[in-house]
Design a protein that fits this description.
By secondary structure, this protein is of the alpha/beta class. The protein has eight helices and twelve strands. The protein is globular.
C-alpha cells in the first residue's frame, strides 16, 4: 500500500526542473502553470520557481509573490462533495490500484495504475451511478478523462480560467504593450482543447482588419510599423497545462 500511495503522488519530472527554472527566471517571460490539482500539490512542486500557479482549473490563482486568490466566480457551491465522496471511495475500494483525490471544488477518481479493461468497466459503472443518483440535482459537470472520472463545479474549465488568469497577469504587471507571443503546452486534448480554442482567433483568410484579443491587449500580426525596441519590450507569456493529473506536459503540434 505504501508503494501504491507513493505512486499516485504528483511530482515534477526531474528533467524539466532546470529548463523550467531558466524559463521562469527570464525577465521577458511569464510562466503560468495551470492544473486540475489542488493548491498544496502545486506549491509542493513549484514553490522555488518564479511562476504563476492556477489550481483546480484556475479556480484559485497564485501570483509570483506567493499570494493566493479566487480567480473565478464567488458563487461556488461545494455542498455536494460530501455525499459524492462515499461513492468515489466505494469504487476505489473495488478497483485495485485506483485512487480518489478530494479537492476543494471537485473530486476525481483515477484508475491509471489499474488494469485498463477492468478500470474502464468500473468507470462506466461509476458514470451510470452518478447520473442516476448523487448528482441528479447538483449543479456540476462530469468530465471523463483517459483513465479518470472527475465531478466539478458547473462552468469551471481551463478555458474560462486562463482567460481570467492572463487578465490578472496583465493587470499585475501593468502591461501597456500587447503580449507578442503565447506558447500553450498540454497533453490531453479533450481536457485542454478549450484552452487552445481561446487562443485560436479563427480569423478568415480574407479578413485583413486588425483584431483585438479578449484579454484586453491588441493583437497585431507582425505589424510592420512596430519597431525592434517595441518588440523586445513586449512580455512573452507561457502557459503550461498538466491535464489528467500529469506534471510533465508534452508539446502539442501547434503553429
Amino acid at each position: 500500500m505504501a508503494d501504491q500511495v507513493k505512486e499516485t503522488e504528483l511530482n515534477l519530472h526531474p528533467e524539466l526542473e532546470q529548463p523550467l527554472k531558466r524559463l521562469c527566471d527570464d525577465p521577458t517571460s511569464t510562466v503560468v502553470i495551470m492544473s486540475g490539482s489542488e493548491r498544496c500539490v502545486l506549491e509542493k512542486n513549484f514553490e522555488d520557481y518564479n511562476v504563476w500557479l492556477a489550481a483546480e482549473h484556475s479556480v484559485f490563482i497564485r501570483t509570483t509573490n506567493k499570494n493566493w486568490s479566487q480567480n473565478l466566480t464567488n458563487n461556488i457551491h461545494t455542498d455536494w462533495i460530501a455525499s459524492m465522496k462515499h461513492v468515489f471511495e466505494y469504487f476505489t475500494t473495488r478497483t485495485p490500484r485506483s485512487y480518489c483525490e478530494l479537492r476543494e471544488t471537485s473530486i476525481v477518481w483515477s484508475y491509471k495504475y489499474s488494469d485498463f479493461k477492468f478500470g474502464r468497466r468500473q468507470a462506466k459503472d461509476l458514470l451510470n451511478h452518478l447520473r442516476t443518483g448523487p448528482i441528479s440535482n447538483a449543479s456540476v459537470d462530469i468530465v471523463q478523462g483517459e483513465r479518470s472520472v472527475e465531478v466539478r463545479v458547473n462552468g469551471v474549465s481551463k478555458g474560462v480560467g486562463i482567460h481570467g488568469s492572463l487578465g490578472q497577469v496583465i493587470r499585475n504587471k501593468d502591461m501597456k504593450a500587447p503580449i507578442d507571443y503565447v506558447l500553450c503546452v498540454g497533453h490531453f486534448l479533450p481536457k485542454d482543447e478549450d484552452i487552445y480554442m481561446l487562443f485560436d482567433l479563427g480569423i478568415p483568410a480574407t479578413t485583413a482588419a486588425p483584431t483585438h484579443s479578449s484579454l484586453g491587449s491588441p493583437i497585431d500580426e507582425q505589424s510592420p510599423n512596430r519597431s525592434e525596441e517595441e518588440t523586445k519590450a513586449d512580455d512573452h507569456s507561457v502557459i503550461a497545462s498538466d491535464s489528467d493529473n500529469s506534471c510533465c506536459p508534452v508539446n502539442r503540434n501547434m503553429p
